[in-house]
Structure formats: structure tokens, C-alpha cells
């Protein structure tokens, strides 16, 4: 498959207190957001490919079932899934780190659900759950910082959504990456 070199910008964003979170309005489309409490490699891989397949999310594509299970089984890792009329619409994955830091490692919507105000609502809930993560996990220090990274390969509205929710850019990196001509999609040949 032909490859191409493109410049990729990564924005690293953070919040340093729960008061910095600016919740989005409730979307017109009713969405239920619930934590997937049981580690499920199948569910997480599905969400990863369905949300990130169009944005060159490839880091985890080669993971085995056991690698997924080990990642998801770590204390404090949480997957919050948005559903619209019972259908998965997007997710936020939280990764606890030392000293009260939580990273939102994966976040986004399936393509069919973008442009409806769901992203702001899901991010509001996901960030709020990052701030109160210690309430659900014994031996976890209270959250003092929530951070994430978004890329110029991500959805066009991603950076604006993060900033609208109160995340501030603390670093920007630019690198040249080699990518397949088209993103992998949720499965080979998908758009």
C-alpha cells in the first residue's frame, strides 16, 4: 500500500482543577453514558477502531487479546460509553497515573454521531469522571490534573471541543509521520 509523509501537530491539553471543567449543554439527541465496568477487550477494540479508524489510530491495532485485557484490568482504568437508542455512539477511556493524574487516553464519537452536540456532552461527562475517579477506586489519590492529547489527524472539531470544555494547551509538538494513503477505518475497506 502506498505511504505518504505528512506533518502532524499534537496539542497537549490539561485541566488543573475540577472547577476548570465547563460542561456542554445537553444534546438534542438523548444519550445515555455508562461505565463499562467489566474489562472487555472486544468492546474496547471495537470502540478504538470504530472511533479512531478514520483518524489513523493505529497504535493498538496489533494488540493481542491479552494485551487489551491487561491494559483494561489495571486498577482505575475506566471506559465510559455513550449510547443513543441503545447503539454505541462514542467513548472516553480514562487512564490513572501516579500522583493524582488522569489521562483521557481515547475519546471520540463514531462517524454517524458527529455534529449533533454529543461530543461536548460526552467529554463533559468523561472529564467529570476523571475528576472524581478516586471516589470509585480504593487507594487512589484525589485527581489533581486531567490531561489529554489531540492531533491534527483527529476530528476537525476535537481541539475546539477540548478547549470549550476548559482544557488549556500546555504544549504543542510537530512531527512528520509516515501514513498509509488512507486511514485504516474500522475494518479493511471501510470508509
TrEMBL record:
Annotated GO MF terms: acyltransferase activity, transferring groups other than amino-acyl groups
Residue stretches making up the N-acetyltransferase domain: 19-189
SUPFAM superfamilies linked: Acyl-CoA N-acyltransferases (Nat)
Keyword annotations of the record: Transferase
Descriptive protein name: N-acetyltransferase GCN5
Organism, as annotated: Actinomadura verrucosospora
Amino acid at each position: 500500500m502506498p505511504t505518504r509523509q505528512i506533518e502532524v501537530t499534537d496539542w497537549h491539553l490539561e485541566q488543573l482543577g475540577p472547577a476548570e471543567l465547563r460542561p456542554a449543554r445537553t444534546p438534542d439527541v438523548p444519550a445515555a453514558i455508562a461505565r463499562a465496568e467489566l474489562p472487555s477487550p472486544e468492546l474496547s477494540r471495537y470502540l478504538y477502531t470504530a472511533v479512531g479508524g478514520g483518524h489513523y489510530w493505529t497504535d493498538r491495532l496489533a494488540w493481542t487479546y491479552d494485551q487489551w485485557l491487561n491494559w483494561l484490568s489495571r486498577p482505575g482504568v475506566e471506559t465510559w460509553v455513550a449510547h443513543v437508542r441503545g447503539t454505541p455512539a462514542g467513548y472516553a477511556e480514562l487512564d490513572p497515573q501516579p500522583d493524582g493524574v488522569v489521562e483521557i487516553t481515547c475519546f471520540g464519537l463514531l462517524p454517524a454521531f458527529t455534529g449533533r452536540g454529543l461530543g461536548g456532552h460526552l467529554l463533559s461527562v468523561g472529564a467529570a469522571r476523571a475528576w472524581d475517579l478516586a471516589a470509585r477506586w480504593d487507594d487512589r489519590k484525589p485527581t489533581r490534573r486531567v490531561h489529554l492529547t489531540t492531533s491534527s489527524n483527529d476530528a476537525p472539531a476535537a481541539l475546539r471541543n477540548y478547549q470549550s470544555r476548559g482544557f488549556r494547551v500546555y504544549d504543542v509538538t510537530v512531527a512528520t509521520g509516515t501514513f498509509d494513503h488512507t486511514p485504516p477505518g474500522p475494518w479493511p475497506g471501510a470508509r
